[in-house]
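Hi C.,

You asked whether I'd gotten around to modeling the 286-residue construct. I have! Everything is below, sequence then structure, no commentary in between.
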Amino acid sequence: MSLVESTVLCFWAVSVCGPPLVKLLSYFTGGKFDSLLTWGKTLETKEPSRLLVPHRFFTHFYTTGYLFNTIFLLDLIFQTSFISFTISSAEDLLQTILTPLGIGQFEKFKFSVTQPLLPSLLLHAQLTRRLLESLLIVQHDKSKMHAAHLLFALCYYPLLSLSINVSSVLVSTPVAVLSVVVFSWASLHQYRCHVILAELRASGDNVYGIPYGDWFVFVSSPHYLAEILIYISIFVSSGGGYLLGANCLYQILNFSLICTPPTHNWYLKKFEDYPKNRKILVPFVY
């Protein structure tokens, strides 16, 4: 395994294992670390203000991802070898640092000349839409998030773009068509849900209401359900690359165990007339 593959795999391993471990640690310390796992309206913390940043900084998250994926996509389309050269140079530098520490030689990574374009295009479509939504639709209030979220987010999309380039293979036409259909269907519903949430906040800061319409009929966090479907479709379009599989596992565990239960419980606590038949994330199941 090359050094770049090992690095990216370590990032996804930390992403998958980190939140459940922090959740467990927070449970045994009386919620001391809850601020690392929640944001926005569900954030309740006594953390020093210097550790909190505005929730609107999520726009930086999508901007960084968009710029990095644009570079990857252009390199892939025009076969410039810029990314390959950059990563090869970085590997040489890291190997020079690691060798005196007694760490053995890693394989040199080489990009495939048959690298599929589809998963990169789907990710670019997702990043473009989310960036535009963040700039034009989302109602940014005065809510906060922990600075650790921002640091993780700034690494997330660049490494996701790299994961696509590292572990994707060509897929058959039916599989490609299926992945595009699921991606488009989930993206449409995620957009609709974000519009619904934005319209609830249009009257001013810190004003919340019960969302109705689209997939909100079934679950409390349909935009997260759509997010999972979007990344599963990208995973399928990549031919089941192991690094993208790790990302899907992160998405499923993070949204099902960490993000959505606090949101669902917050709605139930704040609104007595909140629909009792709504599930947390998966319609009719969970």
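If it helps when you're writing up: The chain has a mean pLDDT of 80.

Thanks,
B.
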